[in-house]
Amino acid sequence: MHPFFQQYESVVFGLKIIGSLYLLYLAYHVLISHPDSAAAAGQHPFMTGALLQATNIKCYLYFVTGMSTFAVAGLWGTVPMKFTIMILFGIVGTLTWTLAGQLIQNFYSAHYRGINLIVSALLVFSAYDLWR
Which of 56, 66, 72, 127 is most buried as measured by Cβ atoms within 10 A of its Cβ? Predict the structure, then answer.
C-alpha cells in the first residue's frame, strides 16, 4: 500500500465508502435495465457512434503508439504506409467488434434478465469484497 494511504487510513475508509456506494448504484441500475432502454437512449446511432470514436482517447493512443513504436524497413516503414496499415487494421478491428456486438446483443436480448442478475450480483460482491 502507498505510504500516503498507510498514513491516512481515513482516506482509505472514505474511498471504500464511495466505491461501495457507486458499485451498489451500478448494480441497481443494471438489475432494472432492459434492452430497449439502451436502444431508446440514442435516436441517431450512427452519429452517436461516430462521436464516440472521434472522442475516444484509445484511438489517439493507438495511432501515437503505432506511429512511434513500430519500425519496418523499406517502403513498409514510411509514414504514409504505416498510417494506411494502421487505418486498415483499425477498420477490421472495428468491424469485428461490431459484428461480435450484434451477436452478443441478440443473445443478451433473449436472456437479459439472467445476465443482468449475474452482473448485479457480481457488482454487489465487488462492493462486499472492498471491505474484506
Answer: 127
- pTM value is 0.60
Alpha helices in 1-132 (DSSP H): 3-7, 9-32, 35-41, 45-54, 57-69, 79-129
The string of pLDDT tens digits covering residues 62-99 is: 777 877 776 666 666 677 888 888 888 888 887 888 78
Identify whether the C-beta of residue 14 lies closer than 8 Å to the C-beta of residue 125: no
Q: How far apart are CA 19 and CA 102, in angstroms?
A: 32
Contact 116, 37 (CB under 8 A): no
Residue 113 near residue 21, CB atoms below 8 Å: no
To the nearest 10 degrees (0 to 180), the angle between helices 79-129 and 57-69 is 130
Which tens digits make up the pLDDT trace of 104-128?
Answer: 888 998 999 999 999 999 999 999 9
Report the distance separating Cα 1 and Cα 78, nearest Å. Answer: 45
Which single residue is written with the C-alpha cell 493507438? 62
